[in-house]
Design a protein that fits this description.
Layout: H1 2-17, E1 39-41, E2 44-48, E3 53-64, E4 67-80, E5 84-98, E6 102-112, E7 117-128, E8 131-141, E9 147-150, E10 165-167
Antiparallel strand pairs: 1-3, 2-3, 3-4, 4-5, 5-6, 6-7, 7-8, 8-9, 8-10
């Protein structure tokens, strides 16, 4: 069991801290302002004011600071007091979240703006540089920059079989 713990620690350090230095910020997403303005575009929009919800479909693109989310369908939950206060985004139909240095892909995602958490499920892949981790579920804490990958349920993540898998690039050192 110890090799698995060491691998998990290595994976977290490699993806979260960058391959060059484990002393740097945990993630490029650390400190992302989940209260920053949100820009959104889509092929179609539907407002459902009675239930404080809006649905967007078709080539949906959401931008907040340096974070971009792309998906086929998105539902915004909001509070309608003194303007619209978005508190949750649910995305489905293939979701890609990008920051300047990382890309995460999955089948579904939930962005909880109040808690600053992004959770992705279903065939999740987190990439940074030439390294990646794949699994069933990824949770990113935007305040701390901590990313946690789970294998998910067996049968849900077909490629990994309920396990976290990955590949890490190793920089070449020395003369030859």
């Amino acid at each position: 069991m110890r090799p698995m713990i060491a691998l998990a620690a290595l994976a977290a350090m490699s993806l979260g801290a960058g391959l060059a230095s484990a002393q740097n910020n945990i993630s490029a997403l650390k400190g992302h302002d989940s209260k920053a303005p949100i820009d959104l575009s889509a092929d179609r929009a539907e407002a459902q004011d009675r239930v404080d919800r809006a649905i967007f479909a078709g080539n949906v693109i959401v931008r907040q600071g340096s974070l971009t989310l792309r998906t086929a369908r998105l539902t915004l939950a909001y509070a309608n007091q003194n303007g619209i206060d978005i508190n949750r985004i649910d995305a489905s139909g293939g979701v890609t979240v990008t920051s300047p240095s990382e890309t995460a892909k999955g089948d579904f995602a939930v962005y909880d703006l109040e808690d600053g958490l992004i959770t992705m499920v279903g065939n999740v892949r987190l990439e940074r540089g030439g390294s990646y981790l794949s699994g069933g579920r990824l949770t990113i804490d935007l305040d701390s920059g901590r990313a946690v990958m789970d294998g998910g349920l067996r049968g849900v993540n077909q490629d990994g079989g309920g396990r976290v898998t990955g590949r890490f690039t190793v920089p070449r050192r020395g003369g030859s």
